[in-house]
Amino acid sequence: MPKVSIVIPVYNRVPLLIECLKSVRAQSFEDYEVIVVDDGSTEDVKQAVSPFRVRYVRQEQQGPPGAYNTGIKAAKGEYVAFLDSDDLWLEGSLEQRVDLLDQYPEAGFCYSQAYRLSEADQSMTLVHPPRGPATIRDGEAEIRSYLANGNHIFCSTVLARRNCLEEVGGFDAGFRSGSEDLDVWIRLLKKYAAVSTPQPLAIYRVHAQSFSSDRELDEWEQSNAKVIESILNDSVMGHRLADMRPGAYFHLYSELAARAKGRGDLRTARRYLSKAWRVHPAGKLFSWLLLSVKVHLPRPMLTAGSTAKQWLLRRL
Known about the structure:
The chain is of the alpha/beta class. Helix content is 48%, strand content 19%. The chain folds into two domains: 4-206, Spore Coat Polysaccharide Biosynthesis Protein SpsA, Chain A, CATH 3.90.550; 214-315, no CATH class. The N and C termini lie far apart (49 Å).
């Protein structure tokens, strides 16, 4: 039996999937199985993965939650790692996370820092500010961090105990807009501690058209609000976290404004900024003002500023 089952859901994007699989093959830790779940792709995924040591599972399209659950059900390992088909693992990623879970048996899962790779300009930045050494925190402390700062746990950095995933019921098929992983982390954190490392162990791709319509942004807002309310209405910890409601929604609306701004929809960005200000006027004022300036400046000024920034970065 393998120590780790690696679940990679995929829908098309075969060239990125091949890069992803190469990053797995380069890992120093070798006691694993790879389960590629083809979620109804129109491209020939089966042929593309044939040179790699993988178990290929095809299903009718169910979306990410269904693909993740199919992978968990097929898994044989003690631990389950998730890797989105367009993301990459860095050298030693799997070994370091296995060591973490082995070291902290009270943790239901572990996660790491990551790099964010922008498809638009190929720039790569840390997802979070640098932190101290590997840390274990109880579930409520992790949940508080989410309410204060948003989702800080990226799916492709997570290694979880399979029995813990099965205990909380896996992924919820009701989530269709990118919050299905967050929902699982929160349910795990209601029962278990988590351990994290500041070492960047994955590269997370940000695609230019991640949110291409108002409907997708609205769905993302609703799914994140569903997670927030599941925390604040929790019978055990909800009353202790009630005062964090304004900050949680301030962060959610600010993030939505940033995403709308990123796709060039400044009108929608202004709408979300207004909601952020109304829900929590005393929120992170500097960040709100900075984004507000960006969404109110004329587009030519924004373009000129972005061009100047890239020119300077190339010369540093």
